[in-house]
Amino acid sequence: MAEMTNEQTKLETVKQLGQMELPTGENNIHCLSIIGQIEGHLVLPPQNKTTKYEHIIPQLVAIEQNPNIEGMLIVLNTVGGDVEAGLALAEMIVSMSKPSVSIVLGGGHSIGVPISVASNYSFIAETATMTIHPIRLTGLVVGVPQTYEYLDKMQDRVIQFVVKHSDIDEQSFRNLMFSTGKLARDIGTVLVGVDAVNCGLINEVGGLSAALNKLKQLIDERRVDNKNN
Asked: 145-164 and 83-94 helices cross at what angle (nearest 10)?
């Protein structure tokens, strides 16, 4: 079989990973996109726009190992998805040695919240929203006490992660999560732009330029630290 041409390789990358090859020329920043629904252990219907966590994990490992990449920009526009998969991505991001900045565009809902706060610094667009609600299960589950105990433990993992990596306190986050009357058919809270900043969840309201400038600042600071050490 003939080798794939460069154009075919690029198309295959778009098809499989949902993003194009980085622009040619030297670039020390990698853009990681979390778009649509985060797909975990179950394959979602083909009409769903998804981010497959098994595709993101190798990218994170490659970014950490690549000496030419000095920082990572995480762009989120997600409705949430698989809780364990989303939390796994958040844990990997927060454990990376290289600076990272996240920006929520459109929405960073549900399990997208821990991912957005996993970076070293977070931005949210003025009109973007974040929905905070309790963990929910879809599909057939066994309705026994152990199931609800597992849900509680999973929920505590998410809460503790968000509290640890943002400026919001646990009680405030729980109040947002279990608030009633703010969502038509559910409990929880929708934060819009500056609301997410005021409660301490996100660091700053801003767009792409602000996020890139902050990331370059963090990269410069890391260079200085590495030089001094």
From this structure: 30
User: Catalytic residue numbers?
Assistant: 110, 133
Query: What structural domains and CATH numbers belong to the chain?
Result: 31-37+47-228 (3.90.226.10)
Cα–Cα nearest to 124, from 74, 189, 88, 71 = 74
pTM equals: 0.81
Element (H, E) at 22: none
Residue linked to tokens 């902050």: 214
Q: Are 81 and 38 in contact (CB under 8 A)?
A: yes
Go through 9-20 and write b for each residue having 16 or more CB atoms within 10 A of its CB, e for each that does not: eeeeeeeebbbe
Q: Residue 189 phi/psi, 5° resolution? A: -140, 140
Question: What does the pLDDT look like over 108-153, one tens digit per residue?
Answer: 888 899 999 999 999 999 999 999 988 765 544 455 555 667 777 8
* H-helix segments, the chain: 6-17, 53-65, 83-94, 112-117, 145-164, 170-177, 194-198, 208-228
